[in-house]
Amino acid sequence: MQAVSVQLLYLLGAFRFRPPPTKALDRFRTPRLTFISLKWFCPVLHGNRPRTSPKGPAEFMFEFNDDEIFHVDLDAKETIWRLPDFKEFTSFQAEGAQGNIAVLRSNLDILMRRSNNTPAESVPPKVTVYPEKPAEVGEPNILICLVSGFSPPEVGVTWLRNGQVVTDRVEETDFYPNKDNSFRMFSYMTFIPGRGDVYVCRVAHSGLEQPLDREWNPNMPEPLPETTENVVCGLGLAVGIVGIIAGTVLLVKSRQLNGNRFRQGPL
Q1: What are the structural domains of the chain?
Q2: Complete DSSP assignment for 153-165
Q3: Does the pTM of the predicted model rise above 0.85?
Q4: What's the average pLDDT block by block, 10 residues per block, for the chain (267 residues)?
Q5: Is 122 within 8 Å of 209 (Cβ atoms)?
Q6: What local confidence, expressed as pLDDT, does residue 43 receive?
Q7: 61 pairs with which residues across the strands?
Q8: Which residues fall within 8 angstroms of residue 155, CB to CB, at 6 or more apart?
Q9: C-alpha distances out from residue 254 to 183, 241, 250, 251, Å
Q10: Which residues contact residue 177 at a Cβ distance below 8 angstroms, ignoring those fewer than 6 apart?
């Protein structure tokens, strides 16, 4: 199964603007003309006539400067805002997404019938696991699994703790498009680090021969805190200054000795 994507461009000016309620949003009073991309993805079954399904997977999302503004939960027919500030001065009716997707499905079906149906290449994902903040044993934290650079946008993420599948306190984002036409998504797991615990983010994708595991444990080295980095930089700077002073003193003394020998002349 492969995925075909259709992209439309909308203008931010198409939103219905209303005056923001607070001065905190003054910078948004003047609408700026910008493009918002909408992408919809459709599965293609090889060996059969390309076809779409009214119940097929779809995603309706608006972005601004590569950040999601909102997406539409197509099952609940609800607009989910990722940037709350935008909700204060604009609105979007979730029902409108269904109409747009219906048009896209019709256009996509025509494109698929007229194309040569060349299979798209499956690009495997890259996986990175890291905590939201420096991990401390016994302190609540959030473990983040970044899955990026993959195509088509079909991926399965499973969390494991000490070899056991974790199903609660787990959340996932939608698929975010990258500029190179690949995709990225995040999976979050709320947890309390314990000594000896081992966490794994397991990712399955059509571009992988087998699921890809990325391991993390509380004992893995973390980036140096800013205070530690400042101390290290300060010590390095101090050592460097001492070295410069010592070198200057030795150079001056060497020149003085050479000058005395020149004035005394040969014995």
Answers
A1: 2-114 (3.10.320.10), 126-216 (2.60.40.10)
A2: S-EEEEEEETTEE
A3: no
A4: 42 37 42 41 40 53 76 82 76 80 82 74 94 92 96 93 94 88 93 92 95 88 52 63 68 66 52
A5: no
A6: 47
A7: 71
A8: 125, 147, 175, 185, 203, 204, 205
A9: 65, 20, 6, 5
A10: 37, 39, 63, 183
